[in-house]
Design a protein that fits this description.
Number of strands: 0
CATH architecture: Orthogonal Bundle
Number of domains: 1
Radius of gyration: 23 Å
Strand content: under 5%
Order of helices and strands: HHHH
Distance between the termini: 58 Å
Amino acid sequence: MTPNLVYVVIIGVLFAAGVSLVLERSLTRVLMGMILLGNGVNLLILLGGAAGTPPIVGLGPQDAMADPLPQIMILTAIVITLGMTAFLLALAYRSWALSGHDEVQDDDEDRRIMRLAERDEGSGIEDTEEPTR
């Protein structure tokens, strides 16, 4: 079975839009990106399966039966996407309830690491300090 070009383009667009949304700071956009990535994965798995008779013994010849594995994997991907969606919705709601927005902010440790990285790039030498515990 050769893949349909329209499906390949749709899968590429879903993956590209999903990845670009996941890299945003807003948890709502991250949620939408995860949903798009989940749908892209489902289409990708569906595209890999071959058509055939239902995989029930006795309805047709065994060599003409469809492989049930892509169907099981799509069902599992749907459940995983639903779980991730519920988790990210809860996370976005909690962030909105505490701070009034769902933007992910840099914390003090991120800023400290960025300053250390900028200092190391400017000096041209590697950091040989032992980490403090």
